[in-house]
């Protein structure tokens, strides 16, 4: 479990995260939602160790981030897979080299072992025969799969994804969502996804955290979100007519 307690982060005296407390469970896809600028990326970067919070505790399966030695921090970093916004693949490296990158950096595995692992994760994300291709030769959805394959190549305990669906058509976005959820269950990872995509939230948001101006304004599941009367959540999530209608239909069905 990842437990976050009273997390505060500010930049040049301007508070961005204002005392967030929550927790994330193994085998579940949790989603952070909220308007642009609400603090989602900063929150994820605090968890990743890229930003140091001014106050608060982040505890990874009993390991408090404030109490870890440099060696333990490095170990923890190895246990986190990250899918960056836009994929963040290295354009000048092939698919195989991109996915092998963390293995070369963090392990002393033999090249044949590394290649075996690369092929295994490529197969898992349903990509084959693309080892020697460069990212620019792949579609957006394929690039996202490569980014996911790279994120899971070290067999992580924790998977963080920043807008994994950005730039994808709705069908490909759903395929990527389902892939992330399946892998989360299979590897029993703690998966946290920043998202703007309400389809994803409804589809795979086993836990949803709604941030507003750096405060946790609401927390619940994708079932709860249909029923909530919380005005800020309703205004944000149901700003589109389509989702309003879906919600009305759901509420009528469950009356
Ligand atoms: N390195 C930084 N230095 C100063 N301010 C920052 C830094 N990173 C983020 N911020 C500020 O923190 C606030 C929250 O930003 P953040 O990127 O977390 O928002 P977000 O919810 O992820 O938005 P989006 O949905 O647009 O990605 C913004 O006001 C942003 O300007």
From TrEMBL:
Keywords: ATP-binding, Nucleotide-binding, Transport. The keyword Thylakoid does not apply. GO terms for molecular function: ATP binding; ATP hydrolysis activity. It comes from the Bacteria. InterPro entries: AAA+_ATPase (IPR003593), ABC_transporter-like_ATP-bd (IPR003439), ABC_transporter-like_CS (IPR017871), P-loop_NTPase (IPR027417). Residues 2-238 form the ABC transporter domain. This is ABC transporter ATP-binding protein. It comes from Lutibacter profundi.
């Amino acid at each position: 479990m990842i437990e976050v307690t009273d997390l505060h982060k500010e930049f040049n005296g301007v508070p961005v995260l204002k005392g967030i407390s929550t927790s994330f469970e193994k085998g579940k896809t949790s989603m952070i939602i909220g308007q642009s600028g609400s603090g989602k990326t900063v929150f994820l970067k605090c968890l990743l160790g890229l930003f140091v919070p001014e106050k608060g505790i982040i505890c990874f399966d009993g390991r408090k981030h404030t109490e870890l030695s440099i060696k333990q921090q490095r170990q923890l970093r190895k246990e986190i897979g990250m899918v960056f916004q836009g994929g963040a693949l290295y354009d000048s490296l092939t698919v195989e080299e991109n996915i092998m990158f963390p293995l070369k950096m963090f392990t002393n595995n033999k090249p044949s072992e590394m290649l075996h692992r690369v092929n295994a994760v490529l197969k898992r994300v349903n990509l084959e025969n693309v080892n020697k291709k460069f990212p620019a030769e792949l579609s957006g959805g394929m690039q996202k799969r490569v980014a996911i394959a790279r994120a899971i190549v070290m067999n992580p305990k924790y998977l963080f994804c920043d807008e994994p669906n950005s730039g994808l058509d709705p069908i490909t976005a759903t395929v990527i969502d389902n892939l992330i959820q399946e892998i989360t269950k299979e590897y029993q990872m703690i998966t946290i996804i920043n998202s703007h995509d309400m389809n994803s939230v409804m589809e795979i948001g086993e836990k949803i955290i709604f941030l507003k101006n750096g405060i946790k304004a609401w927390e619940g599941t994708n079932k709860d979100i249909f029923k909530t009367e919380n005005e800020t959540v309703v205004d944000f999530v149901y700003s589109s007519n389509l989702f309003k209608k879906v919600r009305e239909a759901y509420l009528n069905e469950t009356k």
